[in-house]
Amino acid sequence: MLNRFKLPTSKRAQIIDITETVKNCVKESKIEEGIAIVYSPHTTAGITINEGADPDVRTDINSALERIVPRDWNFLHAEGNSDSHIKTSMMNPGQTLIISEGKLVLGTWQAIYFCEFDGPRTRTFYVKVING
Ligand code: ZN
After folding, report:
1. What pLDDT is attached to residue 1?
2. Ligand 1 is a single-atom ion; what residues have CB below 5 A from it?
3. Rounded distance, CA 109 to CA 73, Å?
4. Confidence check: pLDDT of 111 > 90
5. Global pTM?
6. Other C-beta atoms within 10 Å of 115: how many?
7. How far, in Å, CA of 18 to CA of 114, rounded?
8. Domains delineated in the chain
9. How far, in Å, is the centroid of ligand 1 from the Cα of 75?
10. Beta bridge partners of residue 19, listed in sequence order
11. Rounded-to-integer distance, Cα 18 and Cα 47, Å
């Protein structure tokens, strides 16, 4: 089953918790054992998994990425969003999660994040749930 979602973002760089959306896909699939693939079809927005309890972690991830990949660096790509492309590769375009006993296998503190690096835009992400 392939689920497609639209996600409006409101900032240039924004990390958005999509954990509940992915959990709902798993629940609706009624699959007990399998995998869920969460995928962003964009070159300037990715998917990562990290701490969901303290929102400061998301802010710190964005701050660190901005320091590591400054927007005003001397990039060749002329669109002005080279930093967004690089940050997306650093985060990955997608993540694979384990489903066991009908639930996502996530650590207590883990959340699934859509990472916008060149917003605001209306983005798309996919959740593919596979039995196996
Ligand atoms: Zn570009």
Report:
1. 79
2. 79, 81
3. 34
4. yes
5. 0.96
6. 28
7. 6
8. 2-131 (2.60.120.460)
9. 11
10. none
11. 10
